[in-house]
From TrEMBL:
Co-factor binding details: Binds 1 Fe(2+) ion per subunit.
Keyword Manganese (UniProt): no
Keyword annotations: Dioxygenase, Iron, Metal-binding, Oxidoreductase
Protein name per the record: 9-cis-epoxycarotenoid dioxygenase
C-alpha cells in the first residue's frame, strides 16, 4: 500500500500574516525604551525605511498593497540610544484625499475608485505614492517611487518639503526609479562614490534613461537607450563599466485600464514562451555599444549584485521567479495561497559577452527576497549576502527569517522569527573599522503578530545566530519595501 506524504506543517498562519497589512494611521515620535539586549554604542546615524502606511483610503480597501501611500520611519541612533519617528509623505495627491475625505485616485497595481467602471472610465490620473525607497543623497532626503519625481523630505523631522526635480536634472515627465545603486568608487567621479539610477518610459517601445550623480547631487552623466517592446523593469545592477537591465517577458493591454475595468497592473501579462532580454548599456561615453543577450523566461523584481570577472564575463545574482504571478482583480491579496505561487529564488547568471551565451545556476532553493550586501561591494566581486527568507528550506511562504550566505564556501547562517514574526528587507551597515566584509550590523524590521507591533532587530553581521538587540515599538509598521542608512556626519 502506497504511503501518502504528510503535508508540510506551515510555520505561520494566514491570519497572523494578514494583520501586518493593517493601516497605520498614527504619526508618532519617542525614545525607544523597551529593549532586549544592548544597542551597540558605536551606532551613530539614522536608519530610514519606506513602505505603504495606508492599506485603505477612507474605508476603501486597496486592491494591492503597493498602491498604499508612503510612510517613512526613522530610527536615529546615538550613544546606545534610539529615537523613533514616522511620518507620511505628504504628496499633493495625499493632501487632496485628506481634504476630500475619500479616494480620488486609482492605484497603479489595481486599486479602483468606488463607483465601478463608470467612476474610473478614462481616468488616467496616477497618484505619486512615494512609497518604495528612501535615500539621503546630495544633502537631501528623498522618498522614491519609480513612476515619478522623488519627494524631498526634511531629514530631521521627516516633514515633506515637496516634489523635487533634483535641481533641474529631471525634466517634466521624466521619472527616477526607486532602486538607485551607489558606485563606491566611480571612475566617472575621480574614484569617489556616485549615485547611479534610471527611469523607464514604456509603450510599444521603451526608453531607459540613466542618471549618474556625484556626492553633492550634481549631474555627472545622463544618457538614454531605446529598446523594443513594453518593459516591466523594477531594478537594475551596475558594474564599473555597465548598467545592466533584465527586460522581463511581459506585454500590456491598456484597454481594460482605459475603460475603467482594471487597474494598470492587472493589464500586464507574463509571456512564458518568450525569452528574458539582458541589456548591458556602457557607462562610458558615447554609450553606443549596447549588448543584448537572451535567457529563458523568468521574472525578476530585485537583483543582489553584479561584477566583472574579466572583459568578456560578467556575473549577475538575482531573485528569479519562474513566472510573474498575475494580479487577480477578483481576489484580495490577503487571500493568497502561497503554495500555488512560484517562489523567488537566488540564481547566478553568467554572461559571456564574447559568444553571447548566458548560463545560470540556482544558488539556493529557499524562498527569498530583498538582498543586502556590503555597500563597498556594489558592482564588485563579493562574498557575503544577507537576505529575507522563508522559514522552510524549500516551500514558498511569507518571509519570516534572516539568511546569511557565504558565496565562497556555501556556508549559511539562519535566524527565524517564526511562527509569529514576519520579516522584510535587511540592511547591512559596516562597522567603523571593519576587519572583514561581514564585519558590521544587520537591521531587520520585524512584524510581531502576537503583539500586533513591530520590532527593530539588530544582528552582528559575523554571527546572526542571535540578535544583539531587539527594540520593541509602541505600534506596528505595515510591511515595508526598502530603506537605507545615513551615518551621522
Amino acid at each position: 500500500m502506497q504511503q501518502l506524504e504528510k503535508p508540510i506543517q506551515k510555520p505561520y498562519s494566514l491570519e497572523d500574516w494578514r494583520k501586518g497589512y493593517e493601516s497605520q494611521k498614527q504619526e508618532l515620535e519617542y525614545w525607544i525604551e523597551d529593549i532586549e539586549g544592548e544597542i551597540p554604542q558605536e551606532l551613530s546615524g539614522t536608519l530610514y525605511r519606506n513602505g505603504p502606511g495606508f492599506l485603505d483610503v477612507y474605508g476603501t480597501p486597496l486592491q494591492h498593497p503597493f498602491d498604499g501611500d508612503g510612510m517613512i520611519t526613522a530610527f536615529t541612533f546615538n550613544e546606545g540610544k534610539c529615537f523613533f519617528r514616522n511620518r507620511f509623505v505628504k504628496t499633493k495627491e495625499f493632501l487632496e484625499e485628506q481634504k476630500a475625505g475619500k479616494m480620488l485616485y486609482r492605484g497603479v497595481f489595481g486599486s479602483q475608485k468606488p463607483g465601478g467602471w463608470l467612476a474610473n472610465l478614462f481616468d488616467l490620473k496616477i497618484k505619486n505614492i512615494a512609497n518604495t525607497n528612501v535615500l539621503h543623497w546630495g544633502g537631501k532626503l528623498l522618498a522614491l517611487w519609480e513612476a515619478a519625481h522623488p519627494y524631498h523630505l526634511n531629514p530631521e523631522n521627516l516633514e515633506t518639503v515637496g516634489l523635487d526635480n533634483l535641481d533641474g536634472i529631471l525634466e517634466a515627465g521624466e521619472v527616477f526609479s526607486a532602486h538607485p545603486r551607489i558606485d563606491p568608487a566611480s571612475s566617472f567621479n575621480n574614484g569617489k562614490p556616485s549615485l547611479v539610477n534610471f527611469g523607464v518610459k514604456t509603450g510599444l517601445s521603451s526608453t531607459i534613461t540613466i542618471y549618474e550623480l556625484d556626492e553633492k547631487g550634481k549631474l555627472l552623466q545622463k544618457y538614454s537607450h531605446i529598446i523594443d517592446g513594453f518593459s516591466f523593469i523594477h531594478d537594475f545592477v551596475i558594474t564599473p563599466n555597465y548598467c545592466i537591465f533584465f527586460q522581463n517577458p511581459t506585454t500590456y493591454n491598456p484597454f481594460p485600464f482605459l475603460f475603467g475595468l482594471r487597474g494598470a497592473g492587472e493589464c500586464v501579462k507574463f509571456l512564458d514562451n518568450q525569452p528574458t532580454k539582458i541589456i548591458l548599456i556602457p557607462r562610458n561615453a558615447p554609450h553606443k555599444d549596447v549588448i543584448t543577450l537572451e535567457t529563458e523566461a523568468g521574472f525578476i523584481f530585485h537583483h543582489a549584485n553584479a561584477f566583472e570577472v574579466n572583459e568578456q564575463e560578467i556575473v549577475v545574482d538575482s531573485i528569479c521567479y519562474a513566472k510573474l504571478s498575475q494580479i487577480d482583480p477578483d481576489t484580495s491579496y490577503k487571500e493568497v495561497d502561497f503554495d500555488k505561487l512560484a517562489p523567488g529564488q537566488l540564481w547566478r547568471f553568467q554572461l559571456n559577452l564574447q559568444d553571447g551565451k548566458v548560463t545560470k545556476k540556482l544558488i539556493d532553493p529557499r524562498c527569498v527576497e530583498f538582498p543586502s550586501i556590503h555597500p563597498n561591494k556594489v558592482g564588485r566581486d563579493y562574498r557575503y549576502l544577507f537576505i529575507g527568507s522563508a522559514h522552510h528550506p524549500t516551500s514558498n511562504a511569507p518571509l519570516q527569517a534572516l539568511l546569511k550566505l557565504d558565496l565562497q564556501t556555501n556556508e549559511q547562517q539562519f535566524y527565524s522569527f517564526a511562527p509569529k514574526g514576519f520579516a522584510g528587507e535587511p540592511v547591512f551597515v559596516p562597522k567603523a573599522n571593519p576587519q572583514s566584509e561581514d564585519d558590521g550590523w544587520v537591521f531587520n524590521l520585524i512584524y510581531d503578530s502576537s503583539r500586533h507591533k513591530s520590532d527593530l532587530v539588530i544582528f552582528d553581521g559575523q554571527d546572526i545566530s542571535s540578535p544583539v538587540a531587539t527594540l520593541h515599538l509602541k505600534q506596528h509598521i505595515p510591511y515595508g519595501l526598502h530603506g537605507s542608512w545615513k551615518s551621522k556626519s
